[in-house]
Structure formats: structure tokens, C-alpha cells
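Entry 0007
Protein: Tyrosine--tRNA ligase
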Amino acid sequence: MNKALEKIKCGTNEIISLEELEKKLASGKKLRIKLGIDPTAADLHLGHTVIINKLKTFQDLGHQVVFLIGDFTARIGDPSGRSEMRPIITDEQIKTNAQTYAGQVFKILSRDKTEVAYNSKWLSELGVKGLLNLAAKSTVAQMLVRDDFKKRYKEDNPLSIVEFLYPLLQAYDSVALNADVELGGSDQKFNLLLGREIQRDYGIKDTQIVITMPLLEGTDGVKKMSKSYKNCIALNDLPENMFGKIMSISDELMYRYYELLTHADLNIIKNMHPKEAKSALAREIVGRYHGKKEALKAEEEFDEIFAKKNIPDDIKEYRIKDEEMKLSYLLVKSGMVSSRNEARRIIEQGGVKIDLQKAVRDFTVKSENPFVLQVGKRKFNRIIREKN
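Output (C-alpha cells):
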């Protein structure tokens, strides 16, 4: 049991409570481990895999894992960590996305040992009476304890009643599935703990253990990885695109990816040349989801493109705080040219490139993701937006 517990604890943010988990494991019972993901986009991404890999740990230990596709809750969208309301997606989009999730998750989990569930099965049947009964088990004051809700309320940002229902519906999923353990990101702690309370309200005495996992930052190194933030590396990305995206992240973020996505010894990794370490990371990740042959092919293509374009291995990094700025101003600020007039002249002459693409005019550059800025044949900077 001690070895199993150490495997479960590894890489987690918080376990509530560890003592209860020890008791459940000691009982010898085959536990039901729940992880729910809403199909709000077509692809699972590397951020999801941080939690799915922990689900795989439980599966390898012989427990029953339940991959819950939130096809009902996707109509609302999880408000955790959001500063604004999510855009509404259609039932057709949800259905299409849900179909892709079931296939993608088996890149990690064993198909024949995984229970796949859809929360529309029981939430659609709640009806008005059931929903009112569920809503009565929480208060507005309890919801406003949440930092994200509290902040939006104080800043007079729209906060809909239906968003209050989301944590309750997620909690009811734990009742319907009789979950022993629920996994989630660190930003979901409120929802997961509410699941314990709602289980108790519905007569489940041995309530679920809550395990939270760290959030993986997206390629911008600022916000958590998310399709809506346009900073994600999807499991269904083409091998060459996945490889290129990983190679585009900052050195600092690379170590974070090693920590959350691999079992590599960071002491060894930090003694490697950053480019060598990043290539090794890209090979491992691409190989994991597309096979070693595709990973090596993607690396060869990447190296060939950079070699042909005479892009050096060691590119200086320049960090900016602004989300967007004029290209000419960025060239001056990063020290690549001496004045904006010179910058505009070089741009007009076709001497400026962004990620190997020639800039044809002085436009507003968005810094959501890192990119390589090039002036002439020999000046390079990797532009990275700093964390707030």
C-alpha cells in the first residue's frame, strides 16, 4: 500500500484528505476514480494529460477509472478561474467534440479497463424538481467565497445564475457515479470539495477524496493551457506541429513541461544544453502520442527548416509585458534596430521576419505565443511575453 500511495501522491498539489485515502486503499476495495472534462473544444491537449496521467496511475494500480465527458455541463462551461462568461456552444458542437474525446483519451488510458460516461444521462433527467432540490443545497454566500466569482462580482463583470449551478451539477456527477476519488486541476478545488458535501447530502457517508493537480501553462508561459487562450498543444496536432510548438517555448517553461509531463530527472536535464534538452522533450512528447518514427521525422523536418534558414541554435530571448505592440516599436525596444524610422525602412525592404515569415508592413504584433523575430540574416530574438 505504501508504494501505491507514493505513486498516487507523486506530482499532486493537494489530497483531501490523505488519511481518508489511506483508509480507502487499506480496505482493499476497488475504488471508483472520477475525472470529468467538458467537450468545449475538439481536442484534448497536454494540459489535460497532467490529470489523465494520474488517472492512469490509479488504473495501473487496479482501480476502476471513470472518464466522464461533460456533454451536459459543457452547455454552461466551467467558470473556474475565468474572469468572464464563457461563450455558449451549440449542442451539435458539443456532440462532435465529445466523439473525439472518447478516442483521444485512449492514447493514455487502457480502452478495455476504462468506463466512459456522459453526464447528460442523469442531468437531463433531473428535471425542474430535481434541479431545485440540488440548488437548495448551496447558498449565494457560499458561491461568492470563490475567488473568481468574488472578483467578478466586485468588478461588476457579468456573473450569471447558471454559472452558480455548474459546481452543483459537477458535484451531482459524483453522486451519480458514486465516486471514491475525484481528480481535477488546482483551479477546481471548490467544485471538487462541493462534491464531497453534495454526496453527503444525498446519503453517501464515505465521501470522495479530492486530489488536485498543478495547471500546465500554455505555450505563452502565462495562462493555463487552453484552446480558448490559443496557447495549447493538442494531442491531435500533426507531429511536426507538435514538435515545432514545443521547440518554440521558453527555456524556463521547458523545465516546467519536463516536471509535469515526464519522469525525467531535472538535475540531469538542467545540465544539458537548452536546445538539446528541448529537442529531447519534443521527441518524447511527439513519440508518446504519434510514435517514435513520427517523432524522429518531425525532428528532422524541424532541423532542416532551421538549418536552411540559417537560424542559429542559440537565440537570445527578449521578454515583453505588453500583449501587443507595433512591430517597429518592438524592433527598437528589443535592440535589434536603433530607431523606428530604420525599423520601418527595413520592414519595407523585406528584411524582417516573424517565425520565418516575411513581414510586409508595420503591423500590430500579438504576443500570445513566443515567436522568433529576425532582422536580416544574422539578428535573431525569441520574443516571449512575461507572466503578470
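Curator remark: The domain at 2-215 is CATH 3.40.50.620 (Rossmann fold). The mean pLDDT is 89.
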